[in-house]
Write a structure and sequence with these properties.
The structure is a single chain. This protein is mainly β. Helices cover 10% and strands 21% of the residues. The strands form 2 sheets. Strands 1-2-3 form a 3-stranded antiparallel β-sheet. A hairpin with an 8-residue loop joins β2 and β3. The longest helix is centred in the middle third of the chain and has 7 residues.
């Protein structure tokens, strides 16, 4: 399920909810590499949502449905990098944990 919310009163962000209702767990989509049909910048959660026209209308959307969905992709030969999260200094020791994942060397990764 998609969890879409507004931050700073101006940017939409989208999380992918990964657990059933009642268990708080989700993954923030920070960037994506467009394969087709997207012309705007996608290197950051707000830019990604703007380029894909994602806003509160998609909040609660079933990500296995037809409107907005995530598909399995054939794995390529790439290395996944693990780094500390960005912009969560308030999270104490959790801010330093390596809970940010991305493809090494990918040009579409938001701030490294």
């Amino acid at each position: 399920m998609a969890y879409v919310y507004l931050i700073y009163g101006m940017y939409y962000c989208m999380n992918v909810v990964t657990e059933p209702e009642g268990n708080a767990s989700a993954v923030l989509l920070r960037a994506l590499e467009p394969l087709e049909g997207i012309t705007g910048r996608t290197q950051g959660p707000g830019l990604l949502c703007r380029a894909m026209d994602i806003d509160k209308r998609q909040n609660g959307c079933d990500l296995l449905g037809d409107e907005l969905y995530i598909t399995d992709a054939t794995p390529s030969d790439f290395k996944i990098v693990r780094r500390p999260r960005i912009g969560v200094d308030y999270a104490g020791t959790w801010a330093r944990r390596h809970l940010r994942f991305y493809i090494a060397g990918n040009a579409y990764v938001s701030r490294k």
